[in-house]
């Protein structure tokens, strides 16, 4: 995706701003749920690459404040504020409003919640694959197939590890965990909340947000910011210079992550045969698939209208 300059980018309307707030809320909601990635939702709602570019621009702006103040104004104009600010607001509101609710839902209804998110993530696997250049994929099919398989297998086994809940972790542990978990915000298929769950920090962190524990929140935000700065540049480079292989690897990560969302498993992530509320679980899985399918359809209709509008403008 080519990045628009500040002169090429049109000012967003009220409708687009509100839509971006909703998108931010959906991304944050995904980040609250073990097993579903905020990066996956960003792909589904159609802002993934644009947000990745905006994040890179934001890092450049922050760096120029310290080392290149003469270009601060220029770098500030390059940031896609019409995307970043509404999405950020939507994420913050959702996290503080629903942290307690989602913690309760995931912990008290594990089978139903996993079934719902299983359907959502399974349906979302087509998103990165749709973004792949078919000609380039044919030319790299051996490498792409190997990366897809390795990513899927590795994620499948890694999501099988869990840890006992840590009720009083040290602040440095929280910082490091946040740095790793936030990578899921920009990497589809990897769940930040599941990483926290595997480290035994999921309940503690959500409880801290719900209780407004400012010390823990500040340390977590600092760790998350550090993780994003270190990781987003690498991912941005891969998306621009190795787009096909990166997208195929993302699809593999998403496929492998489905293991964490199998509705029937023990607290130690041991997979079980279907039992109990099987029909209800299947219905929620279908509901999850339908929700993503509806989102993808709406996104495709929006893009089609945008192309039609651009074509009309070019004719005039």
TrEMBL record:
Q: Any stretches that span the bilayer, and where are they? A: 83-106, 112-132, 144-164, 170-187, 216-238, 245-264, 276-298
**Which key words are in the record?**
Membrane, Transmembrane, Transmembrane helix
User: Can the keyword Transmembrane be found in this entry's annotation?
Assistant: yes
Q: Which InterPro entries match?
A: VCA0040-like
User: Record's superkingdom?
Assistant: Bacteria
Keyword Transmembrane listed? The answer is yes
Return the PANTHER family for the record. INTEGRAL MEMBRANE PROTEIN, POLYPRENYL-PHOSPHATE TRANSPORTER
Q: What is this protein called?
A: DUF368 domain-containing protein
